[in-house]
Every structure is written in C-alpha cells, then in structure tokens.
Amino acid sequence: MAAANRRAPPLFWQIALLLVIMAVCVFPFYWMVTTSLKTQVVALNAPPVWFFEPTLENYREALFEDGVLDTLINSLIIAISTTALALALGVPAAFALARFEFRGKKDLWFWFITNRMVSPIVLALPFFLIAKNLGLLDKHITLILIYLTFNLPIVIWIVTDQFRGVPYDLDEAARLEGASQFTIMTRICLPLAMPGVAVSAIFSFIFSWNELMFGLILTRTDAKTAPAMAVSFMEGYNLPYGKIMATSSLIVIPVLIFALLASKQLVRGLTMGAVK
Amino acid sequence: MRDRVSRRTIFAFIGPSIIALALVGIAPLLYAGWTSLHFFNLTKLRRVKFIGLENYGTVLTDPVFWEAMGRTFFLLASALPIQVALGLGIALVLHRPGLTLLKTLTRLSLVLPMATTYAVVGLLGQVMFNQKFGVVNQLLGGADINWIGDSTNAFIMIIFWDVWQWTPFVALVLLAGLSMVPGEIEEAARLESKSWWVVLRYVQLPFLIPGLVAVLILRTADTLKLFDMVFTLTRGGPGSSTEFISLMIQRVGFRAFDQGLASAQAIILLIITIVLAQIYIRVFYKEV
C-alpha cells in the first residue's frame, strides 16, 4: 500500500463500501419479495420491470389453494419438536461431558461432533428404506427423529462449552448440601448456561426449518415440509415464478426476522470455537 | 478436584443421547453397509442378491464418482479463497472505529444470507439468473448470458451463490478474531508501522488463525454436504457440470434407483469425510 494511506481510507470510501456490502446482502431478498408481488405476465417481462402494480394474488393462491399453509404448519411442528427433543437429550449429555470424568470421553465427543460433518445423503438412502419398511414414510416423527442427527451434535457442542464456563465451586457448594447431580444441573448450572442453550435452540430450529433433502425424500403429502413444497412448483414447463417467490418469502422471512432479533446470539454461536 | 460419579449416574445423563444417535445415525449406516453388499435396485426388488464387494469395485473404478468428487473439491478450492479474501476485507473495514450505526446495520445484514433456506437460494437463482427475464443480465447492461444452460456459467453461478451465502460467515468469524487482539498492542503496532499490511501480518494474523481453521473445516464439510441449493438451481446440470458428490449419490439412489451402488458410494464418501475430519480435528482442534 502507498505511504499516503495513513490510518483509515477516506470516510467517503468506507461509507460507499459498507453500502455496497449491505446492498449485495439484501438485494436478493428485495427481488424475491417484489417478484412475489408480480402477476405471471409481469414476472415474465423481459427485461424485468422494477415498477408495477403489486398484487397479493400469489400469496392467496399458494397459501389456500395449493396448500402451502399446511406445509408451513408441518415445518413448524417438526422444527419445534426436534429442537425440544434435541435439548432434552443433549443438555444432560453436555453436562456429563463438561462435568464428569470417564473413559472414552474424547472418543465419544469426537463421535458426536463427526455426526455434524456427515453428508445427509449418506443417511438418506438407508433411512428411506427403513422408513418404507416400517411404514414411517410421510410421518412427522420420521423427520423429527432424523433431524436429531444434526441438531443433537449442535446442542451438545455448544452447551458443553457453556457448562464448562460455569464455575465448578458452585457445584461443590451444592454437593456439600447434599444435592444430587441432577439437581445441580437443573438448579445451578442450567440457569447460568441458558445463553448457550438458547443459541443451540436457535440453530437447531433454523437448520430444521431450512432442511430440504430429507423432507423431499421422506415425505409426500401429510408431512410435507415447506421447502419441499416450494420445490414441487418447479415441475412442468411454465413455471409460476410469482408463486414460487411467494412461497419462498413465506419460508424465509419469518426466519430472517427471527435471525435479526437473535443476531447477537447467532453470531456468538457461529464464531464460538472459532476464536479460541 | 472433581469427585467421582458412579457409572450409573454418568449413563443416566449421557445414555439417552448415545442411544438416540445410535438409532438414527448408526443403525441406518449398518443397513447401508448391508445394502452396499447387494444388488439392490428399487425397481427390481425381487432380484436382490448378495454380490460381495462388487459395488465397491464399481465405485472405486467409476470415473463418474471421482469426477463428482473432483468437482466438489474444485468448488471448495474456487469458492473458499474468494470467501476468505472478501470476508477478511469486510472484517477489517468493520473492525475500524467510527461509523457505528452504519457498521451495526452492515453486521445485521450479514446475518441474512446465512439464515436463508438453501433451497430458496436456489429458487432465487433460477429467477435472478434467468437468461430472458433475469435481473442479473439486466444489471449487466442487457447482457444475453445463458447462465443455467451453459456448463461453465452454471458453475460460476453456483460459486456466486456459495460466496454470497457464506462470505458473511467468514467475515463474522474473522471479525470476532480481530476483536480478540488486545487494544493496546494493536495501538502500539499502528504507531510503530504505517502499513496496514504489517499490522495484519504480524499483529492480527495470529489471532485469526483459529477462525481460519474453523472456516476451513466447516466449509469442507458443508461442500461435501452441498445439495439443496444446487438441486433447486441446476439439478446438477447441464449434463453433469454441477453434479457434486451428494447430488450424484442422490441421483444414483433415487433417480436411477440403484440403492446398492448408491450405498457403496455413500459409505466411501463417509470414509473420506471421517478421515478428513480426523485429520482436521486432530491437527487443529482443542478437545474436551
């Protein structure tokens, strides 16, 4: 860099750069929402138009005639259930990993974490055949269970770290009073580990809500998830782009609002383990 | 010192997780192992028969499998450097003092791409990169580029979306690293040297290494897993130009219905993933 560049680039360039970053991040969402408000004729205009008369017709049709509403409810049921289950199973496991000494702990931790790296397609093939044989295709419970393969490791990873940050003296004090390990976990450590639990719950919910492949393979109609529904509009020659974008908006916007509200925690969770 | 806890107590805490993950994570793998040793075609279920390691032989000598694997690592090798370069640039700008409000807004908008449903990113790609009515060609001054139907362009488009969605992640991780540099050390270094490069290289870089390692590990895993976005955007096409490893296995298993062969491919992918994860984690990560 030239010596002329002393401390910061001129303020103007910094501001311009920040605005460009923001625009690039946000523009696709702007385009998604505006396309969802176009009629099919307007949506297929070449070159695309930026100003037009908006209509909510796509939303009405998608939600009430094509059944997107049902799939959104399915997605919600599945994402909430699998998150609750992952927390119920993962929090005690994290407590054990953070607090107890036992043989094979390192291997166990490694196994939990490796699960997160495995491509879902590896599990999708056998899971499909097993679910088919057990009559579990197109059932909510099937997705709730299989989503544990990525939610449980996330919960264990984040919450173990959080429990380790809780001072051990507190345990000891409670122990002298005769508290059981379970009481120590629920009454003493858990309240202090709540931020970590919340972060892992947010991740678990977003991952489950966003998941497509298992939803595509393991559901048909009754338990169909919203992303699988959005994809099913893609068949045929004349694609209903407005409706596809309306469905996409319905899927994405709640998550975006949620992510913005919890952005501090989300960023903390994402960067956790990355800075130590 | 920690007091001893009985085995039964330990198991009560950790057992349910182990059992649950074994049921949903390991039982299917064992079943996949069994399937992979058989001729197992969903359209010819009457003719299921044991064929030993034949499927594995087919996979290991199949150029289609290795091309998909190579394509996957090529994607990683092309997208990751862009993400790190852009991410580092964004992190350095955001790390500078001043313009607090604007920087807070930028940080917020960086969260959005990461939270977006991968399948929706693909659908958005379809709309924005359409040759005729896509906004991308319009913004390029009325260009007439066939993005989705051309092998090279489709690959570039996939890189674009991968970079769009994951550069924010890299930026935020590196920003967290930069904020770990003790303020007085950074100040002293800036007084000492006027070059931002010297400060970056000798003062800030050591604090960025753990973040870069985490990015490398997670991006490798995510690229091996990549499915949703490409499936909705190109379905692996045109031809097989964007058919990454997870898409290829899905095609063999669910569109060619050859579950035996697909299971063998999946297990080889699993072995490659575990070996990579072992190497990465053992080399770089602190454990329990």
Largest interface, Cβ cutoff 8 Å: A-B, 109 and 107 residues
- Number of E-state strands of chain B: 2
Low-confidence stretches of chain B: none
* Radius of gyration of CA atoms of chain A, rounded to a whole number: 24 Å
Tell me what you see in this structure.
The complex is a heterodimer of chains A (about 280) and B (about 290). Chain A has about 280 residues and is mainly alpha-helical. Chain A contains 14 helices and no strands. Chain A has two domains: about 10-55, no CATH class; about 65-270, MetI-like (MetI-like fold, Orthogonal Bundle). In chain A, about 75% of the residues lie in helices and about 0% in strands. In chain A, helix 4 packs parallel to helix 7, helix 4 (about 70-100) runs antiparallel to helix 10 and helix 12 runs antiparallel to helix 13 (about 240-260). Chain A is globular and about 75 Å long. Residues about 1-5 of chain A have low confidence and may be disordered. Chain B is mainly alpha-helical and about 290 residues long. A two-stranded antiparallel ribbon of chain B has the order 1-2. Chain B is globular. At the A-B interface, helix 1, helix 4, helix 5, helix 6 and helix 8 of A face helix 1, helix 4, helix 5, helix 6 and helix 7 of B.
Descriptive keywords:
heterodimer, A: 276 residues, mainly alpha, MetI-like fold, globular, disordered N terminus, B: 288 residues, 2 domains, 12 helices, 2 strands
Overview in brief:
The complex is a heterodimer of chains A (276) and B (288). Chain A is mainly α and 276 residues long. Chain A contains 14 helices and no strands.
Write the layout of secondary structure elements.
The complex is a heterodimer of chains A (276) and B (288).
Chain A: H1 11-36, H2 40-43, H3 57-65, H4 68-99, H5 105-117, H6 120-133, H7 140-146, H8 148-164, H9 168-176, H10 181-210, H11 213-218, H12 226-232, H13 241-261, H14 263-271
Helix pairs in contact in A: 1-13, 3-13, 4-7, 4-8, 4-10, 4-12, 5-8, 8-10, 9-10, 10-13, 10-14, 12-13
Chain B: H1 7-36, E1 38-39, E2 49-50, H2 54-60, H3 63-95, H4 100-115, H5 118-128, H6 135-139, H7 151-178, H8 183-192, H9 196-225, H10 228-233, H11 245-255, H12 259-284
Antiparallel strand pairs in B: 1-2
Helix pairs in contact in B: 1-12, 2-12, 3-7, 3-9, 4-7, 7-9, 8-9, 9-12, 11-12
